[in-house]
Structure formats: structure tokens, C-alpha cells
Amino acid sequence: MERLQETGVIEFSMVADPVKLGYQLRAVIGLKVDVRDLETIAETVRDMEEVAFAAFVTGSFDIIIHVVVEHQEGLVLLLQRLAGIEGIRSTETFVMPWVIKPTTAWVLPHSEYDVPQPRRKRGPEFDEHGNIIPRKRGRPRRNPAT
Fold first, then answer.
1. Complete edge-to-edge strand list for the sheet that includes strand 25-33
2. Residues ≥6 apart with Cβ < 8 Å to 124
3. Does residue 38 come out as left (phi exceeding 0), alpha (psi in the -120 to 50 range) or beta?
């Protein structure tokens, strides 16, 4: 575990439950933006406290953000702030009344490499004439004579 953490494969963090802290409304907002302003918009969105996640995406929207606010009025205020950002052409909001599976529930999927595979025997090796090259048996010398 320590080596995986040191190499950046895994990281540990604590996650607060927004509902238990009084933040009752979660939403995903799709942003259509002028892509020439993408860097500036990304920096502005990144600094917004209400934004829990943001990504540049393909499809109908250019940016998707996941927001957490205390109530509907907080969402309206956030949408007004977004409307004032240079380069954001439009937004579409999807309120999440129920989270079916949170992002923290993701686990590494099983793969064929999880199950130990039987060792495969190597086939014979051939020289350039198609003759089988005999395998060397025994342990190699530590200090071969030259």
C-alpha cells in the first residue's frame, strides 16, 4: 500500500457527507462555452467553493460541473455567477434528488490478471535452419572462466 501511495497510484482522503453538514442540494450543470476562453473559465470554475468536480468533456456540453449547495437559493446565486463569466454561452442544470452510486464507491475492476494463471511451458527454440536448439540444463556459473 505504501509503495502504491508513494508512486501516486492511490491516494487517501476523507470525504464529508454534504447532507449531514446542511448542504441539501446537489446538481450537475452542463456548460456550453466559447472554447477560446476555456483556460480562463476552467480557472474560475476551479476556484468556486460550490464546485465539487469539473471536467472538460465531449458531447453536447463543453464542461460538466458537479455542485453542492445548501438550498435552491444557493443554486440560483451560483447560476447567476456562472452567467456572468465571460465565455459561458449557456448552462443546463440537472438536480440530483438521489445519488444512486457515489464516486467514492468506485473500486478497481477485476481482470484476467487477478486469477493466478497456470505457468505455460516454453516451446522449443529454433536456429536459422529450423533445427531445434537444445536447452542448457543446470545453473549458470557465477564466475565463468574467460
1. 51-56, 63-69, 25-33, 88-95
2. 132, 133
3. alpha
pLDDT in tens, 100-135: 998 888 887 877 766 666 666 667 777 888 787 777
Instruction: Count CB neighbours of 3 within 10 A.
Output: 8
The HSE-up count of residue 49 (CA atoms within 13 Å, CB side) is 6
Return all residues near 109 (Cβ < 8 A) that are at least 6 apart. Answer: none
3-class DSSP assignment, residue 21: helix
User: pTM for this one?
Assistant: 0.69
Torsion of the alpha carbons at 69, 70, 71 and 76, rounded to the nearest 10:
-40
What is the phi-psi region of residue 8: left when phi exceeds 0, alpha when psi lies from -120 to 50, beta otherwise? left
Domain annotation for the chain: domains and CATH numbers: 18-98 (3.30.70.920)
